[in-house]
Amino acid sequence: MFALNQNSMMAPELLAKLEKMENPSSLVIAYRAVCEAHLAKIASNPIKKFYYIHKANQQLAFAIELGKNNVEIRFLRFAIQVQSPGILGFQKNIKEDERFLIDNFTSYNWNGIDRMVIKYICNFMIDFGTYTQYEKDRLNNFLNEII
Domain limits of the chain? Predict the structure, then answer.
């Protein structure tokens, strides 16, 4: 999934696979939203861009309703919103998600999650979040423990 960050052109194919899944979990719904956000990134029509990012935010809101305490889903919403142009108005949950992530990141059950994914998430939070130095140090210490 994180390969999309290097090549958004993979989004349509991945989205098609995710949409075929019956009774998707909250995490699958969140990853569908990520694909929609990448479709916005590659769309040339401004109306389509707005449509895709709007749809992504709706799906993320629904995914969070289903999985309120899922750090991965909250991170996905944070990542999409922090990279969305402010003029679109889709940045309203950034502070809420930042707080949730820093409060829950180190205690979250990361079993079964690839260490490189955890490292990516942690580094993204450090790079894009507005955390204090103490909070960044906590994330870096956590990162050093898992590597």
Answer: 2-146
